[in-house]
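pasting input
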Amino acid sequence: MAPKYQDAEIGLLKEEVKRQHHHDTKHSWHTAAVALFSFVLLLGVIFAFLHADSLNPAPEDHPLDGLKLDKGSMNVLIIGDWGRKGQYNQSFVARQMGRVGKELDVDFIVSAGDNFYKTGLKDVEDDNFDLSFTDVYTAESLQKRWYAVLGNHDYKGDERAQVDKRLQQKDTRWFCDYFYTIPVSVGPSSTVEFFMIDTTPMVEKYWTFPESLKYSWRRPIPREEVVASTLANLNSALEKSSATWKIVIGHHTIYSFGYHGDTQEVVEKVLPILKDNKVDLYINGHDHCLEHVKRDDSDIHFVTTGGGSRSWNGKFAKDVQARSEAKLYYDGDGFISLSASPSSVLINFFDITGQVLHKFKLEK
Ligand SMILES: *[C@@H]1O[C@H](CO)[C@@H](O)[C@H](O)[C@H]1NC(C)=O
């Protein structure tokens, strides 16, 4: 049976979410609030000299009512494009991941790459690992395994540091590799399987002068071999899999209305494998926004979760709101949750207040 799905909303840009949010805000205790605000602002200005991000107040928490009803037998959070030492809204996204993670009692967290800005990790000792990961995702609900793929920024440092198992001595949550799969049982005869791929070597411009100067390419085999082995691994793992739900995670977009747009090499090389093997979902980062794309020419749902920090904030294809295949385009920061039961997969998109911007459900 062909998978069915239900949609909630279409094309939300940050301005619209903000307007809706303001509409909700209560105006009582006005005078006291102004006095308190002035005092806090003064403290904020003083503190700002020590810490550049603190002029932005933490956003108000949106209630998470109702999420429990949608809990599945497997619950995960998926985030991309995040490691900025807590700056550029990274900490605010982390806070909401902590809240949603607790509410859903998540099993693990998935990272879609660009884990450490701007130039990955330089070695296993790099303190950017502590400052951008361990010290930021401190909520108790996030003390679970983190399964990561690499993004292009990770290749600007020594990407081998991120796949080095010695990193787990610094933080036991961390796991990253060039290719692996995560099979999760969600019922007596039902499995969700994640296929984790490395898309950065596929992209031609990173290997072409002068862009190539920014990349260090420490993997010791030629590009053609790296790409061919990724595609062969993906194809054979998908062929062997009997999972009910097949979900492929890579850093680069396939279809996107963000600043980067589609990634031609991934469309050409990876998409045919996804179609041949009846993959349900392709989930990526790279474009710093939240997106859900569903085209009429394919059963696959394309999800971008690149809102871990420093989102596009106004950068998107001009016609995005007129595009029927763009079920959600949100240019702000955030992350997604994915809950699976034997017959359904539910995805929620969250902003930095914990508000659900969009959701969809696949059923088999
Ligand atoms: C953080 O998010 C808020 C709300 O979307 C936005 O107004 C602000 O510009 C963001 N800050 C940064 C540094 O990106």
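fyi The chain has a mean pLDDT of 90.
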